[in-house]
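Progress report, Aim 2. The chain analyzed during this reporting quarter is listed below.
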Amino acid sequence: MVNVGKFMTDIALALHIPIGWAIKNNVFKQFCGGETIAECAQATKVLDSFKIGTILDLSVEGKESESEFDKAAIEIQETLHTANGNTNIPFSVFKVTGIARFGLLEKVNAKESLSTEENAEWQRVKNRVNNICNLSFETGTPVFIDAEDSWIQDAIDNLADAMMATYNKEKALIYNTIQLYRHDRLSFLKSSHAKAKAENYKLGLKLVRGAYMEKERQRASSMGYHDPIQPTKEATDRDFNLALEYCTDHIADISICAGTHNEESSLYLVELMSKKGIDPNDKHIYFAQLMGMSDHISFNLSNAGYKVAKYVPYGPIREVIPYLIRRARENTSVKGQTGRELGLIEREMKRRKM
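Predicted structure tokens for the chain:
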């Protein structure tokens, strides 16, 4: 169904066929908070009541024009204004590709020479990023800079480092994201920590496994370079847990958000916190899951007193379709995640009937 649905959706988008009606009350409702920030407030009332935070995530992708990038940057700043003073919204988030042309990021990442026009374009990108991060500093609401494809990630990392060096002098407000399904990211984490200590700023990190494995492997194979992805899932799990261990060993210097749907890693972080005497409510550690996924992890952690937030994607239905397709594929490919969660729901319903 996922494969056929993607095929049909691509055709509908190409032919400008209205498809919002077919998506809004199923996959969109499951994984998105709404089309606007205001609609997200209605969708997250249950999260609020269980002390689970909302991370407003403008999930619009694939734009190319400067006007669209400026519009997206303004909308991201609006999520920070909405979060200001609202304890139910502990973070904001953005993707650099939401406010910058992918081809430009590729050239910057490859350290290719930029034309005069491209240098001006790159300066506008840096200005957008700085405006968002400066507003994070002014409002006191931390912001995540999401990780993306490996062939543009160095450019994103450099932007994130510059923003952390500017705005994280007293506490972590700007967070970079580390995808531990890459075999080089544990060493990158440690070098990022060393850099932060040397330059006297606090390191903010969101730790995730990763979301682009198939695309990464295919590109590496077709272009003949070394695959950046771990050789096995077990290697990814190992590095993710080693990253948790390293960060909790240096919790005075590093603030983390553990973005994971993995029960074992969530439990491991709980055990590390207990072993090292870190309070469940410690301001340096958050757990996070996506809306519509792993509610059993989110609600149980919150119930036990840990800081938890849900990513709540939003945006016009047609524009969040790439995100929805990734979520649908993820739910069918990660060892039957949908089946596991449905099984948990069924067992709970039977238990309540007893």
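Residues 1-31+318-354 form one domain. The beta strands are 53-58, 91-94, 143-145, 174-179, 203-208, 254-259, 285-290, 308-314. These observations will guide the mutagenesis work planned for the next reporting period.
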